[in-house]
Amino acid sequence: MSEEVIYAHLKFPESRKTENIQELDRFEIKAPPVSSHVWRQIALTLTFLCLLLLIGLGPLGSIFYTTLKRETERLNTLQNVKEELQGNISLLLMTNLNKSENIRNLSITVQNLATKLCRELNRKEPGHKCKPCPNHWLWYKNNCYLFSETRQTWQDSATSCSSQNASLLQIKEKSTLEFVKSQKLYYYWLGLSPRQDDKNSGENIISSARLKRYMNDINKMFCGYIYATNIFYVPCTERHLLACEKKANPVKAESVLMSEDPDREM
Fold this sequence. Notes:
Radius of gyration: 58 Å
Order of helices and strands: HHEEHEHEEEEEH
CATH topology of the largest domain: Mannose-Binding Protein A, Chain A
Strand order of the largest sheet: 1-2-8-3
Strand content: 15-25%
CATH class of the largest domain: Alpha Beta
Distance between the termini: 174 Å
Structural class: alpha+beta
Number of helices: 5
Shape: elongated
CATH architecture of the largest domain: Roll
Number of domains: 2
Helix content: 40-55%
Number of strands: 8
């Protein structure tokens, strides 16, 4: 009897512990779930927020579309204005080019007329103020010529011409040759290349179209001079007459049109 009591006493705590665990398990399993009412409120809130966003996006989209349309129209207008301005500028440039060309042609025509008129005036009145050459210089074609009676060496003659922005006479064209022949020049230095000898003296004058070259020892060279229609070579240290040439200045139209001397007192 006593053994049964002891066994039952020993078994009871363990059994009691097991029952407690089982009760706890049943309690956890049978815990009530979260109420569906809370989830419904959350869903409604999110839906409401989405609707508000959609409602707000409508006016924003309308404003964006209106702004985009207005700016596009403004950009198109500016583009049209730009193209119109470019067209106007191109037209103005073409007009100015045409006007410039007309002015240039007119200027050339006036210059040619003034030159012809000045030649006629100078023919009737030698030394007329319209002449584009300095005093004592002869005007022929587009050049001015000076024939001096001063005798100098070839190098001194070249220096004298250079000091007047001119050079020794050179005959490069047949028209110039005819002019030189008409002047009947004798013993005038020419702007020919000095030589080391005086061979071929008496050669035809047309060969004097060669350009002048300065030599290091000019005193030992031979230089050419004109005698009527021929060229002769003599030592460059000899003294002969001076013949210079240079380009004529353009004829001033006002000097042709003015009949009175502008320096004369009124």
